[in-house]
Amino acid sequence: MTEENSNSQYPQSDSSRYARILKEYVKAYNAHDYERTMAFYARDIRFEIVGVWVRTGGDEVGEVLEWDIETHIHMTMTEIHSRGNIIQCHLSETNDWLGLSGIGEMHYEPCLFVFQDKYIREIRAELTRESNERYMRAWKEISEWTTANRSKALLELIPRGKFMYGKERAQKWLSLLQEWRDATGR
User: Fold this and answer.
1) DSSP for 27-65?
2) In 10 A of CB 106, how many CB atoms?
3) Residue 134's domain is classified under what CATH number?
4) Are the C-beta atoms of 131 and 104 separated by less than 8 Å?
């Protein structure tokens, strides 16, 4: 953990405390512990993948967590810097959805965690250009095949054009992606 506390308005002890909290959060997330992970969030949690979507509140963010648990997410953080109540890092993630889609690993830089007291109030992650390009290429192929072959399933999974999360949807997506791979030889 790199401390960047040249400004005395950010006590090092607060930055260190947030770094310890974040480390425990990542452990809980990677252990797929729903209750423990949710306990890290402020009531008004805001989670944004920049330019892609925003989820707010425990219910919406909880659905993202359910998805991540069901798809066996593993995330790692590097290049971690803290300043006051904000921690910035490079975040990488893998999961079964990314594996089946052929994307592999996604990278977010920067990824910001904003703390309020001992809780995460906001997560703001920006896909790297390379990750975004890999995602867009894979998504084009997947959406073309599902539109042509499984349009009803696609409409259920993305109602009114909004990608929905949750445990059940993750299970359906994993099944659909396996079907896509089998049909296309990917």
Assistant:
1) HHHHTT-HHHHHTTEEEEEEEEETTTEEEEHHHHHHHHH
2) 21
3) 3.10.450.50
4) no
Domain count within the chain: 1
Distance of CA 38 to the CA centre of its chain: 14
Stated pTM of the model: 0.89
Phi, psi of 19 (to 5 degrees): -65, -40
pLDDT bin (cut points 50, 70, 90) of residue 13 is low
Q: Please, are residues 116 and 85 in contact by the beta-carbon 8 Å criterion?
A: yes
Which residue has 């992606």 as its token pair? 177
Half-sphere exposure of 14 (CA within 13 A, CB side): 16
Q: What are the pLDDT digits (tens) for 86-140?
A: 999 999 999 999 999 999 999 999 999 999 999 999 999 999 999 999 999 999 9
Other Cβ atoms closer than 10 A to 4: 12
Domain residue limits at 147 = 2-184
102, 156, 160, 112: which is closest to 133 by C-alpha? 102
CB count within 10 Å of CB 120 equals 22
Q: What distances in angstroms separate CA 116 from CA 35, 124, 148, 153, one per listed residue?
A: 19, 15, 47, 40
